[in-house]
Write a structure and sequence with these properties.
Blueprint (H helix, E strand, L loop, with lengths): L1 H9 L7 E4 L3 H12 L6 E3 L3 H9 L15 E5 L2 E3 L4 E3 L5 H10 L3 E6 L3 E2 L5 E8 L4 H10 L3 E2 L10 E2 L5 E8 L4 H9 L4 E4 L1 E3 L3 E7 L2 E6 L2
Parallel strand pairs: 1-2, 1-3, 3-6, 4-7, 6-14
Antiparallel strand pairs: 4-5, 5-13, 8-11, 8-12, 9-11, 10-11, 14-15
């Protein structure tokens, strides 16, 4: 199924582009398809080590993100996407770098399983935040004040995962009766949080895949 989504994503790529690539099985397939095309000027930006190694193995040109003011498209997978495309979530390190690639893109192409495409009412929204080390206890407390349940490996007294930036990654869930943009804003306003795993307010095209095929949905 991810293979079909990657094939659909390939249609958005031209040889003169600089594109961002995230991570996930569909992105792996997309790299395979790109390598089979006759591109000579396509450039790829990624902050994911696995993606970079796979792209290099396939003979693709990788350039660092700091060399580019913007990207033509960024392709990524999501763990969750709301049906009006107003917000999505990707729990994967590095959180800050994922946000940078998304923000740089003129167009975001998200490949999402239909099982992960839905509404947020009455559901606990999972998310991650990348946190300054010195702010760990404070951020943990603020999340709990909001009603979030912090994952055991991120709880007080335990050392959570470290990002490639040497910041902590906290995983949590929260029941939220507003839109994801308001949750993202509230989390981003907490001192010590560098980035959240929530994507909101960006130009999105969603490729929703299942056994029946791929449905393309555009945000207006």
């Amino acid at each position: 199924m991810e293979r079909h989504a990657a094939q659909a994503a390939l249609a958005y790529i031209r040889d003169d582009m600089t594109i961002g690539l995230g991570s996930g099985k569909a992105v792996d397939y997309l790299i395979e398809f790109i390598s089979m095309e006759n591109y000579s000027n396509l450039k790829i930006v990624t902050n994911n080590m696995h993606t970079a190694l796979l792209a290099k193995k396939r003979g693709l040109t990788i350039v660092p993100s700091w060399m580019n003011a913007s990207l033509d498209c960024t392709f990524d997978t999501l763990d969750y996407l709301v049906k009006d495309l107003s917000g999505g979530m990707k729990n994967s390190e590095p959180v800050v770098q994922n946000k940078i690639l998304a923000s740089m893109a003129k167009q975001l192409i998200f490949m999402v399983s239909r099982d992960n495409f839905g509404v947020i009412e009455e559901e606990a929204i999972p998310f991650q935040v990348e946190v300054e080390k010195e702010a760990l206890g404070y951020v943990n407390g603020r999340l709990k004040e909001m009603g979030a349940i912090v994952a055991e490996d991120s709880a007080e007294g335990r050392i959570p995962a470290l990002s490639s930036n040497a910041n902590y990654i906290l995983s949590a869930k929260i029941r939220w009766n507003k839109d994801l943009a308001s949750l993202n804003n509230e989390l981003s306003d907490i001192p010590g949080i560098y980035a959240t795993s929530l994507f909101t307010g960006l130009p999105v095209t969603a490729l929703i895949y299942d056994k029946q095929g791929v449905e393309t949905i555009h945000a207006f």
